[in-house]
Amino acid sequence: MTLPTPPAASSLDGGCAFADGAYVPLSEAKVSLFDWGFTRSDVTYDVVGVWQGAFFRLDAHIERFFASMQALRMQITYDKAQVRAILHGCVRAAGLQSAYVGMVCTRGVAPKGVRDPRLAENRFYAYALPYVWIASPEKQKQGLDLHISQRVRIAPESVDPTVKNYHWLDLVQSLFDAYDGGHDTSCVVDGAGHIAEGPGFNLFMVKDGVVSTPARGVLMGISRQTALELCQRLGITAHAQPVTQQALRTADEVFITSTAGGVMPISKIDGVALTGLPGPGPVTQRLQEAYWAMHDEAAYRDPVDYSH
Amino acid sequence: MTLPTPPAASSLDGGCAFADGAYVPLSEAKVSLFDWGFTRSDVTYDVVGVWQGAFFRLDAHIERFFASMQALRMQITYDKAQVRAILHGCVRAAGLQSAYVGMVCTRGVAPKGVRDPRLAENRFYAYALPYVWIASPEKQKQGLDLHISQRVRIAPESVDPTVKNYHWLDLVQSLFDAYDGGHDTSCVVDGAGHIAEGPGFNLFMVKDGVVSTPARGVLMGISRQTALELCQRLGITAHAQPVTQQALRTADEVFITSTAGGVMPISKIDGVALTGLPGPGPVTQRLQEAYWAMHDEAAYRDPVDYSH
């Protein structure tokens, strides 16, 4: 598959998408109403951050995206190097120094009258948007108010959560609950009533200096992985293990991780302050600082060429 | 909301969609890559059949669609009469005497930087396609070979199955299993291992003249409801109750119900014939005949005006 020539730097204002084999403005990035990626949510995706002119951990995101496609038995006509080139092309065309960059593969549409998903032609999309924050840097100074919803995350026996997917109605309902109650965001629980994940993020708690994050039934987030690696670097004990609601409510610190903002502090749960002080606790703050410092390490940087 | 004038009869070939407030060819019916209806599968829909020039049970489908939207806290600018008019307009423009007609509501896109689903502008789509068969009339003469997958249907505690939704990855995976094994279609089970539903259909079994269909954790299909009503009319005892895999495998007859084909016989389960004969058993056959005869009853017909 020959790639189209990427548009000139900053030729598209505010964002750029790649759809049907061409770079297009965001407003032209559309999926057929009949694509099974829509009508069956038979789709996988990944998102990666660009910060100050460079992708962060792009390899890891592309690897996971291809693993997700393989798990869903999807194939695209681009290899990993070409996907990388397309993502770079989107960021360059959008002229964004900091960006939220997505790659999407849908099942596509099968030939007329056919219901066999093996016969559909899978479709690839990509895009670059201005960097997205679940909590803005200003909001992070105060910390977020998290609602713990009693809604149950779709079980791993139904949909493999390690394959990044758009099956989010449970999370969306929990968001309604959160906003109705005046909170900032939400998480849902698993079948045992333990903490699962939130809309677009993993959860962590700190108690007596030890960090815990749910072990199963959640996305194996790359930001989650980064936080666990940073704990190791910093000599902070961290475990992936079940986290009860009570443990979260009585934690010393709680934070969330996401490509959309990195490590972000939770200061209240259902309106009740975790500690006397707003903003990040000491462990969260160390991890936040280490997270952003890691963006300067050559091993994790993939600079965008904006020059031509 | 003023409706656009419906296109002239048969002005669009092979199908017609309604998107962004206008009647368009199917190829132009597209959803934004950033619509939460896609990126969160935050969407509901309904489909209704047109047979020999008339909608079948259109009221029931429109009622369910509006109930689904209400459950997801969605609102569109069209009322029920206008949705009905749009659906009629699609069928007329497509010039289809028999059609598969859909209505879709997506969450839409929230203002920039906002994650609150309450602030998104919901979007409405509709379409008319040539009638869709899960099993063609020819295939129905033989009956289908159903694969019982051990994959677990998304639980009602996570996503309300009575709100018609596109959370189908579990069903899609079961379809891969079915096609890999040389079967025609598939169903999945619930958390207790009992029969749940298939991709786009409800399941029924007949044993010793008594009809059973799963009671919970499944879509409350309108075709399912029609089959239950026809049982009552015909004096056939029918229960909504748990159906075990073993019961299904040893049933006298098994059939499925869907807007995409009505009452359709299963003749084999995982390649093993249910009875000595292919095609529909006697109860299935009575229900099939009654199902199509019901399409002639004025109470359930809503004729399409193709004349101008």
From TrEMBL, chains A, B:
Annotated pathway: Amino-acid biosynthesis; L-isoleucine biosynthesis; L-isoleucine from 2-oxobutanoate: step 4/4; Amino-acid biosynthesis; L-valine biosynthesis; L-valine from pyruvate: step 4/4; Amino-acid biosynthesis; L-leucine biosynthesis; L-leucine from 3-methyl-2-oxobutanoate: step 4/4
Keyword Magnesium tagged: no
Protein keywords: Aminotransferase, Transferase
GO molecular function: branched-chain-amino-acid transaminase activity
Reaction(s) catalysed by this chain's protein: L-leucine + 2-oxoglutarate = 4-methyl-2-oxopentanoate + L-glutamate; L-valine + 2-oxoglutarate = 3-methyl-2-oxobutanoate + L-glutamate; L-isoleucine + 2-oxoglutarate = (S)-3-methyl-2-oxopentanoate + L-glutamate
EC number in record: 2.6.1.42
InterPro entries documented for this protein: Aminotrans_IV, Aminotransferase-like, BCAT-like_C, BCAT-like_N, Class-IV_PLP-Dep_Aminotrnsfr
Role played: Acts on leucine, isoleucine and valine.
Protein family per UniProt: Belongs to the class-IV pyridoxal-phosphate-dependent aminotransferase family.
Protein name (record): branched-chain-amino-acid transaminase
Species the sequence originates in: Comamonas odontotermitis
